[in-house]
Amino acid sequence: KRPFGAPDKSLARPVTKVGVVGAGLMASQFALLFVQRLQVPVVMTDIDQERVDKGVGYVHEQIGLLQLKGRLNQDQANRLKALVTGSLTKDAFADADLVIEAVFEEMSVKQQVFAEVEAVVREDCVLATNTSSLSVTEMASKLRHPERVVGFHFFNPVAVLPLLEIVRAERTDDASLATAFAVGKTLKKSCVLVKDAPAFVVNRLLTRFLGEVTAAVDEGTPIEVADRALEPLGLPMSPFVLLELVGPAVALHVAETLHTAFPDRFAVSPNLAKLVAAGKKAIYKWDTGVPVIDPEVLELF
Ligand code: 3HC
User: Fold this and answer.
1) Which residue among 160, 165, 250 is best mutated to probe the pocket of ligand 1, counting the most ligand atoms within 8 A of its Cβ?
2) From residue 49, how far is each of 45, 107, 146 by CA, in Å?
3) Which of 47, 95, 152, 274 is the most exposed place for a label (fewest CB within 10 A)?
4) What is the set of domains in the chain, with CATH numbers?
5) Could you tell me the distance, in angstroms and rounded to a whole number, from the CA of residue 266 to the centre of ligand 1?
6) Which pLDDT score is estimated for 289?
7) Does residue 110 contact residue 103 with C-beta atoms inside 8 Å?
8) What is the Å distance from ligand 1's center to 157 Cα?
9) What is the ipTM of this complex?
10) Is 234 left (phi over 0), alpha (psi -120 to 50) or beta?
11) Most distant CA pair in the chain, distance
12) Residue 8 has what DSSP assignment?
């Protein structure tokens, strides 16, 4: 059955090579998923060799773990590893059919990345963004071919969570959208077409949920009490563990976007802002396997 709003699949173009801009954790998870499911060359770029090596290294390591788990044999693992390469320049995208960006959540940075990618790729190469909340239409607006841009919003951990929000921007054409849906299906994701609106659909709910729990903590409830209080809801993980998984900086960014768009419905937590200003990426210490709140976080709050 065709997902709601998806164009006819006969319009989809084949994807025989994928480019990933950025080699951070999110980008590396994409590279792994693409190579596993599409089985095509995947090339990763970043701003320096160390980052590129780290990204490619992560993908190779994860393929090694899949082999250890018995999900890949030696030949399959070697073949997948050989398909994932790194490059310092975007020229390596010249023959790519799809390029996805997972760089810093800042409109000007993402527009710049897309402009650089457009300078080297073919006219029919689809450009996808994994933005969590920014306008895909605005991101595409300065390109020669904005009709090739789609939003491709995955959820963390990318390998496990089944949902993929596909965003049609104002000028996205049917062929690019159909290609995005075809790729999403090959990635074995449940694809939904969402409107290009601030934070799309899921992050609105998530931000409202995490925002209310963080507000309770801002008002004086200890983090561990808030975590414990929600246990009976049977969530897959506690709210502050989820906040750590999403990353405080990303959560803050999405909250700020939503606060700007809908000030009466979304607030920005002062404690979350403090956490990010202090450069804290984690809330817990995991040394013992059981999460213990980092004393530095307790001091900040
Ligand atoms: N990376 C890769 N695989 C992972 C993983 C990770 N970080 N964490 C868990 N897994 C895998 C495990 O290897 C295991 O796979 P297997 O069964 O094939 O061996 C499987 O997931 C289940 O893992 P566990 O049994 O250890 O753990 P749980 O059953 O507790 O599940 C979870 C872990 C899937 C992370 C679950 O806790 C969960 O769903 N949490 C909620 C996550 C969530 O809501 N994410 C959305 C964040 S919002 C977002 O990303 C959008 C952004 O724009 C902000």
Assistant:
1) 160
2) 9, 24, 30
3) 47
4) 9-195 (3.40.50.720), 202-300 (1.10.1040.10)
5) 27
6) 86
7) yes
8) 5
9) 0.95
10) left
11) 57
12) P
DSSP string, 185-248: HHTT-EEEEEES-TTTTHHHHHHHHHHHHHHHHHTT--HHHHHHHTGGG--SS-HHHHHHHH-H
Return the amino acid letter for 300: L
Please tell me the total number of residues recorded for the chain in this structure: 301
Q: Which residue type occupies 1?
A: K
Q: Give me the tens of pLDDT residue by residue for the chain, a chain 301 residues long.
A: 778 889 999 999 999 999 999 988 899 999 999 999 999 999 999 999 999 999 999 999 999 999 999 999 999 999 999 999 999 999 999 999 999 999 999 999 999 999 999 999 999 999 999 999 999 999 999 999 999 999 999 999 999 999 999 999 999 999 999 999 999 999 999 999 999 999 999 999 999 999 999 999 999 999 999 999 999 999 999 999 999 999 999 999 999 999 999 999 999 999 999 999 999 999 999 999 888 999 999 999 8
Q: Which sign, positive or negative, has the C-alpha torsion 156, 230, 300, 208?
A: positive
Residue-level pLDDT at 1 = 72
Is there an atom of ligand 1 within 6 Å of 132 CB?
A: yes
Cα 220 to Cα 214, 223, 269, 271, 296, distances in angstroms: 10, 9, 13, 11, 17
Would you call 177 helix, strand, or coil by DSSP? Answer: helix
Distance 170 CA to ligand 1 centre (A): 33
CB 87 within 8 Å of CB 43: yes
pLDDT at 127: 98
pLDDT at res. 301: 87
Ligand 1 pocket, 289 CB below 6 A? Answer: no
- Before 198, cis peptide (omega within 30)? no
Q: Which residue has the tokens 């200890």?
A: 222
